[in-house]
Design goal:
This protein is α/β, with parallel strands linked by helices. It contains nine helices and seven strands, in the order H-H-E-H-E-H-H-E-H-E-E-E-H-H-E-H. A five-stranded mixed β-sheet has the order 1-2-3-4-5, sandwiched between helices. Helix 2 packs parallel to helix 3 and helix 3 runs parallel beside helix 5. It is globular and about 65 Å long. It starts with a helix and ends with a helix.
């Protein structure tokens, strides 16, 4: 855990005329997350925005990745996100307002060799954010995932010499909008990479319905099952119910 970057940033904000404090407690434990939120409450009286971007890297192929390295990444990325959201969420509900931004990764969408622990955690953040969006909707809480690509301290060991300009300043405006009181989206995924901003989302093929299946019938129909011609892109807020309702409707010929 490096304390200098947090303290330097807080000083930079104060020098620019803003107000800031730095907490260097770790999100990897409930106690650390509780201390971070308590520090914010003590300084500002409320918590309006949570941006979870704490991260670490322990690379390794599935044939060699140690359990210790898996746990080290899980504790910071996924458990850390839960800890900080869990501590902030009741305060946001009580004040009927909140903005949550969790830092995902294209690794969590598509996977990446040598990074099973990182990819697993980033995929898990999507489910956490979607759930926070659903549970917080009635209280004015919006939760989204930023999927950035930027050259930062975590890029150490990677050859970035052929990358286009992709500093954090190309990601920060998207995060700033997701954290803004005028943000009108929730439960969504936003990509920010080298100046490109886009939305990522999940889709299902319509598939086919049969009252019963055999292994051979799955094999015979796999092309139709995989056919992307007719897609379901379900709204996040109602996706769970829509998925079941549409699937059940197919049993009635709908």
């Amino acid at each position: 855990i490096g304390e200098d970057p947090a303290n330097e940033l807080a000083a930079e904000i104060r020098d620019a005329g803003g107000e800031a404090i730095a907490s260097t407690d770790s999100v990897a434990t409930p106690e650390g997350a509780r201390a971070i939120i308590a520090a914010a409450l003590a300084a500002f009286g409320r918590v309006d925005i949570v941006i979870h971007s704490a991260g670490n890297v322990r690379r390794g192929l599935l044939t060699e990745l140690s359990y210790e390295d898996f746990e080290a990444v899980l504790s910071v990325h996924l458990r850390g996100a839960f800890h900080i959201v869990r501590e902030a969420f009741p305060h946001m509900c009580a004040q009927n307002y909140g903005r949550i931004i969790l830092t995902g990764s294209i690794n969590g969408l598509y996977g990446k060799a040598n990074n099973a622990n990182y990819a697993t955690c980033k995929a898990g953040l999507v489910g956490l954010s979607h759930t926070a969006a659903i549970e917080g909707a009635a209280q004015g809480i919006k939760s989204n995932v930023i999927i950035p690509a930027a050259v930062t301290r975590m890029s150490e060991g990677i050859d970035v010499s052929k990358f286009p300009p992709m500093g954090p300043e190309l990601v920060a405006p998207v995060v700033g909008w997701l954290a803004h009181e005028d943000c009108n989206v929730s439960g969504e995924l936003y990509i920010a990479v080298a100046g490109r901003v886009a939305r990522a989302f999940f889709a299902e093929s319509e598939g086919i319905y049969r009252p019963s299946w055999t292994i051979d019938e799955v094999a015979e129909n796999i092309a139709a099952i995989r056919d992307e011609t007719r897609q379901w892109i379900l709204p996040q807020q109602t996706g769970f119910a829509d998925h079941l309702a549409r699937s059940f409707a197919m049993t009635q010929g709908g």
